[in-house]
Design brief:
With 419 residues, this protein is α/β, with parallel strands linked by helices. 41% of the residues lie in helices and 21% in strands. Strand 4 (114-123), helix 4 (127-137) and strand 5 form a beta-alpha-beta unit.
Length: 419
């Protein structure tokens, strides 16, 4: 079945039952995101003119909910009740009562008005997006005690004007271009024990700050990432990104610690799977121990991947990173395919440089990983996509050239890494 180039997103809260829109015969693709109160618990893609009948769709939905339901049921010490069968047989009352038991222990009952978190929004000449981001931040049920906007290499005063329109937001102008430079500037201005980063093109959910803060109640956690859900899938570029480069890391907690680091070291720890820089946080004092973001990995230099390289150093120092899917934001993906190709080029350029940079700390398996990616994975994609290279294959050339460019950049600047 040919993939859709746009999807209508439906957010369905299961607390009132499973009320499905009339979607099976629609010309447009459908993306169903399932919630239990404030928690996202699964999603399903449906292609246009889906041949699924209702029983097949219900089975697909049950499978999508499976990881979250089973994870939280285990946390709650509940037996393995036949909830999948209840969904498939439309026994709504039974599965709803079970879900109440499953999710009740992790649902927040009372939250403070503020939490000791510094929310850092790095932005560069995107005042309209920043305004939307700040509007949502300032309306949270539980707000961060400090909000910092880092205006990165501004072309005008538009960003400053947006910040001046709202109270209690710190404005910091950073003339040097680069996301990691901006992140470091934000960390150095932060005054609270947790520094949380947001991109300017995200919208936070009401309990985002609370769930960021609660993650650090565990003294072993030095960093965290959260769930990122696509805000729109209106264009082919957005659909390609969400299906093949998604920031969504799933609906259950994941712990990355010393055991994970040592177990994956021979093949190269896939730290890029830990989360997304659009929704991440660190203990402020961890910067003093492991250092700040590597500014040579910025878009003006190597490319990007400063976030995953930072996670690598945090793990290498023996710390723990927690992926908390209850800290949720919505992200606006690139709408234009050319913009997406540029983004992917710099992703892969930075990916290669970061991997080899990380190799210098420990003898990890990154060289073999990069060789396999270049010689095997991309070769297979070149054959599969031939001759038209549709959908996900449209970014293949950007991936290959980005990776090669990253290798060239690294070996050209090897001496600079030790300065």
């Amino acid at each position: 079945m040919k993939a859709s180039i746009s999807y209508h997103i439906h957010h369905l809260n299961l607390t009132s039952g499973l009320h499905l829109p009339d979607i099976l015969d629609m010309e447009q693709g459908q993306y169903l995101v399932f919630w239990w109160r404030s928690m996202a618990v699964g999603h399903v893609f449906l292609e246009p003119k889906s041949e699924l009948d209702l029983p097949e769709l219900l089975k697909k939905i049950a499978a999508a909910l499976g990881p979250a339901v089973e994870y939280y049921a285990k946390l709650s010490g509940l037996p393995n009740w036949p909830w999948r069968m209840w969904i498939e047989q439309e026994e709504t009352q039974k599965w709803r009562e079970f879900f109440e038991l499953v999710f009740a222990p992790v649902l927040t009952k009372e939250v403070p008005r503020h939490v000791p978190v510094s929310a850092v929004v790095c932005t560069s000449n995107r005042a309209p997006q920043l305004k939307q981001c700040l509007d949502r931040l300032l309306k949270l049920e539980c707000q961060p005690q400090e909000i910092i906007v880092v205006d990165n290499a501004p072309a005008d005063n538009a960003t400053q004007q947006v910040v001046e329109e709202v109270e209690s937001v710190m404005y910091v102008r950073e003339p040097r271009i680069g996301l990691d430079i901006a992140r470091n500037t934000g960390a150095k201005h932060a005054r609270l024990p947790v520094v949380a980063y947001l991109d300017d093109d995200v919208l936070v959910t009401p309990l985002w700050a609370y769930h960021v803060w609660e993650t650090f109640k565990d003294p072993n956690v030095a960093a965290m990432t959260g769930l990122v859900i696509a805000s729109h899938l209106r264009s082919e570029a957005q659909c390609i990104f969400e299906k093949h480069w998604s920031f969504n890391r799933g609906y259950v907690d994941k712990i990355y610690d010393t055991h994970y680091f040592k177990a994956t070291l021979p093949k190269g720890p896939p730290v890029w799977e830990i989360g997304a820089g659009a929704n991440m946080a660190f203990r402020r004092d961890v910067f003093e121990e492991v250092g700040y973001f590597d500014e040579l990995l910025d878009a003006g230099a190597a490319g990007c991947n400063g976030d995953s390289e930072m996670w690598y150093r945090v793990l290498a120092k023996g710390h723990t990173i927690h992926y908390n899917p209850r800290a949720i934001v919505f992200h606006e993906h690139r709408e234009n395919v050319q913009e997406l190709k540029k983004q992917i080029f710099y992703y892969m350029r930075g990916h290669a440089v970061a991997a080899l940079r990380q190799q210098r700390y420990y003898r990890a398996g990154y060289p073999k990983y990069l060789a396999k990616l270049l010689l095997l994975s991309y070769s297979r994609s070149a054959v599969k996509g031939f001759p038209d290279y549709p959908f996900q294959y449209r970014t293949l050339w950007a991936q290959v050239t980005g990776l090669l460019s990253g290798l060239a950049f690294y070996f050209k600047h090897t001496k600079n890494w030790d300065k």
